[in-house]
Write a structure and sequence with these properties.
The protein is an alpha+beta fold. It folds into two domains: 265 residues, QueA-like (3-Layer(aba) Sandwich), CATH 3.40.1780.10; 77 residues, QueA-like (Thrombin, subunit H, Beta Barrel). The protein is built from eight helices and 21 strands. A hairpin with a 4-residue loop joins strand 8 and strand 9. Helix 7 crosses helix 8.
Amino acid sequence: MPARGLCGIMWRYAPRRPTAELTLKKSDFDFELPPELIAQAPLAERSASRMLMLDVPAATRQDRMFRELPDILRPGDLLVFNDTRVLPARLYGRKRTGGAVEILIERVTGAHEAIAQLGVSKKPKEGGRIELADGSHAVVLGRDEGFFRLRFEAPEPLEKLLLKLGEMPLPPYIERHADASDVERYQTVFAREPGAVAAPTAGLHFDESMLKRLRERGVDFGYITLHVGAGTFQPVRADDLKDHRMHREWLNVGAHLIGQIRRTRAAGGRVIAVGTTVIRALESASKDGQLHPFAGETQIFIFPGYRFTSIDGLLTNFHLPQSTLLMLVSALAGREFILDAYRHAVEQRYRFFSYGDAMLILPHGA
């Protein structure tokens, strides 16, 4: 039954009787999504998005606006952002035979080397050369699972080459080429550490005005760096989740942030992750329930049954059916509760995925 909330209608979720799930399948995380709900472009204002708020212990949801976030958070809460900066990681070239090649950098692994996806009719062999628009070349060094290892023969480091020739790497479900507006909008306003090839999209909702309001509310900010790879869009191929292997991503959780988190918790504040990448970083830096400084790679895969130790809430976007990110939020709030919230979001015409609307999950209550 619906109950009247402070801002519109608050719905209470009545769970079905639990079923014994000895194994979780990727099909357990499916839902029907009309294609027209996939946001193809950002709103005119970053903070104009809608926001579905979930209170997990109360099993309630509320339709809110993202602009209400300062009224929902408390003085003393800590928002943790991912400050990675998206590289223009999509390149175009040609093989010696003349065939067109699309290169999507997955991870920069050195000054002139990277792991990449190749869009090409016939996959090149080791030693194959791809000519780029400025006459420089990418040489295929070999395979790395589903990706290719490339060396770029260019006078400048790869990051500078990408700035010169690259295109912003919009996700595959955005059915258009990146334009000039995406250079700004597919980047958070606090991005500063270059290395990602996909945006930490929960952070895209924040503009300078919203950050100012949150500071005035007494909310503190902290930062991790996790360079999101193109592997984040790779489908789960194993039917049994225990058989799925995650892609690798580089992250850094510093001692300063860990100090902020400890002080926040000691004072009774909450740690709210802005995006699933922040959760992945913090949980990768957690050992025996304690956070430690950590810089390196992670392949952490979080799905229902996982016990979180580092956060008290999550601001996120709506995720792909059967995706590892949908599995992560299901671990935080419960699979049936999340899928019920997603059905509601579809019914209410929320905008989905990178340029879409937001969801605030409070696993310990509002």
